[in-house]
């Protein structure tokens, strides 16, 4: 696992985000446009050439593997490649998660890129987003927790569009945290999930440092 330390200031984080977030948003627009475009085949082929040129430009300098999760020395996390919340990841909706002890909540708009059954949210996407949310809820007042078991129940189809989600810790037993989560549309809950989150035994960063108490960690940058 990559939890490297990157010694930068909050101002530098803001500066970097101000550059990459608009780019990621543009790539989200690109993904949506490719899915829904009805321009001619010739224009689609021309678009491919332009996109290939951008990819070649970005690949001139590239880190190997994945982005990982860097932390500052003040333990501000930068999970910018994360599939659900990554600021650099156009695959992520992204979720803007509000946290309080034992609770994680967010509102989101899921468009064409998240489709499973026609017009509906893909079940795997719903599970992905709820998995992130239960992880965030479990980690608000404890050490980081990994998903041991996630049970998802799809109550009725979730239509693409504006949605909300919520995860709440229901109980803790030693290193295990039990979390209940829901995804809802305007008419109520469409998906619910129950998770057993587990803090790995003797969790330390690969740098050898233990994580500080949760109150000193900020996971939202
Ligand atoms: C940090 C900021 C927020 C981040 C949010 C991120 C959200 C993303 C969430 C994820 O997607 S995490 C990625 C998906 N999950 C994984 O990759 C986990 C892979 N599995 C493991 O790493 C280990 O198997 C695990 C840490 C889950 C457990 O390993 P341990 O060696 O610590 O478990 P151990 O065998 O000591 O068992 C401890 C307790 O947990 C129980 N347990 C172990 N594995 C379990 C499991 N899979 N499901 C349910 N319970 C489990 C086990 O029975 C026991 O219960 P008791 O204490 O009551 O005896």
3D structure, described in words:
By secondary structure, the protein is an alpha+beta fold. It has a domain at 98-216: Thiol Ester Dehydrase, Chain A (Roll). The chain is 28% helix and 24% strand. It has a six-stranded antiparallel sheet, covered by helices on one side. Decanoyl-CoA binds next to helix 3, strand 3 and strand 6. Decanoyl-CoA (MFK) binds at residues 131-132, 135-136, 139, 144, 146-149, 174-176, 196, 198, 200-201, 219. Pfam families: 4HBT (PF03061). InterPro entries: HotDog_dom_sf (IPR029069), THEM4/THEM5_acyl-CoA_thioest (IPR052365), Thioestr_dom (IPR006683).
Terminal CA distance: 19 Å
Number of strands: 6
Indicate the proportion of strand residues.
Answer: 15-25%
What class would the helix/strand composition place it in? alpha+beta
CATH fold name of the domain at 98-216, please? Thiol Ester Dehydrase, Chain A
* H and E string: HHEEHEEEE
The whole-number mean of residue pLDDT values reads 92
**Bound ions, cofactors and other small molecules, one mention each:** decanoyl-CoA
């Amino acid at each position: 696992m990559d939890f490297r330390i990157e010694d930068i200031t909050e101002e530098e984080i803001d500066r970097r985000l101000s550059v990459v977030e608009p780019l990621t948003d543009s790539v989200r627009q690109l993904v949506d446009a490719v899915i829904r475009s009805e321009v001619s085949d010739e224009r689609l082929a021309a678009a491919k050439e332009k996109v290939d040129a951008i990819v070649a430009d970005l690949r001139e300098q590239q880190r190997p593997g994945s982005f990982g999760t860097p932390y500052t020395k003040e333990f501000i996390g930068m999970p910018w490649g994360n599939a659900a919340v990554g600021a650099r990841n156009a695959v992520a909706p992204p979720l803007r998660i509000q946290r309080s002890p034992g609770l994680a909540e967010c509102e989101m708009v899921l468009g064409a890129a998240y489709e499973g059954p026609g017009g509906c949210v893909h079940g795997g996407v719903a599970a992905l987003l709820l998995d992130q949310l239960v992880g965030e809820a479990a980690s608000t007042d404890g050490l980081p927790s990994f998903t041991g078991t996630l049970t998802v129940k799809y109550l009725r189809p979730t239509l693409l569009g504006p949605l909300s989600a919520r995860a709440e810790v229901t109980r803790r037993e030693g290193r295990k945290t039990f979390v209940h989560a829901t995804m809802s549309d305007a008419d109520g809950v469409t998906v619910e999930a129950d998770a057993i989150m587990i803090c790995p035994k003797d969790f330390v960063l690969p740098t050898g440092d233990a994580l500080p108490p949760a109150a000193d960690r900020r996971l939202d940058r």
